[in-house]
Amino acid sequence: xxxxxxxxxxxxxxxxxxxxxxxxxxxxxxxxxxxxxxxxxxxxxxxxxxxxxxxxxxxxxxxxxxxxxxxxxxxxxxxxxxxxxxxxxxxxxxxxxxxxxxxxxxxxxxxxxxxxxxxxxxxxxxxxxxxxxxxxxxxxxxxxxxxxxxxxxxxxxxxxxxxxxxxxxxxxxxxxxxxxxxxxxxxxxxxxxxxxxxxxxxxxxxxxxxxxxxxxxxxxxxxxxxxxxxxxxxxxxxxxxxxxxxxxxxxxxxxxxxxxxxxxxxxxxxxxxxxxxxxxxxxxxxxxxxxxxxxxxxx
Length: 299
Fold this sequence. Notes:
Elements: E1 2-6, H1 10-21, E2 25-29, H2 33-41, E3 45-47, H3 50-56, E4 62-65, H4 71-81, E5 89-92, H5 98-109, E6 114-121, H6 126-129, E7 131-136, H7 139-144, H8 146-152, E8 153-162, H9 166-194, H10 202-210, H11 218-229, H12 245-255, H13 261-273, H14 279-292
Parallel strand pairs: 1-2, 1-4, 2-3, 4-5, 5-6, 7-8
Antiparallel strand pairs: 6-7
């Protein structure tokens, strides 16, 4: 197949490289000349503008978006909707909010432009082992792209989810689960480090946990890799960002009255990590002092 990729950062380039390795033809655009030059070295034909890219793609065109969710994705799709023609297809492989994807699908349908939302998981390792693809949109159209899905995905790691937005919805929930698992792992490793046995080796602990244990997983493999690089993570600050997908998962659960206590707590734990000091913590200390005369530590 012949595809154009908009967004050739780490994930976009990984998608491009894997497609090329499976004999698909890839063209692309990125605003950075340095990024375009790097993509060129891996066989991607790059262009200096979206319009230039579109003009060089054979029809019907297929455009894969791998850009940040939100306003950048929305504005890019609006731009494309004014350039593409009926029968062309936009695939959004980023971490878009599923409700946004429903809106994008309606906009493009009004212009007879196809839209497929693909929740893409696998991280940087996906280039090597294949990605996990959760795909939403028109089932017949999606089936016609099977050669592309098979090239990009790990074995048995792509499937049709349902109507437009469902691919990104399933990916959102996937990321919510990821929040919960990561938080449980982080808390467990902290207890190992701060518990009754001093100087336990995190490299050894993570090694045996990742091999044969009930909690072995890809994330545990990555924990082992992290501890191999730095045994006690001394250079890392405990500030944990989020891309919004955990929040969307919790908000959607609230809308549908589905209890998600673990995932919700994991989202709040990330918020707490960004506070140098918590006003809630100060208030708790002050209250204990007021009712019981308990000592308050002051600056």
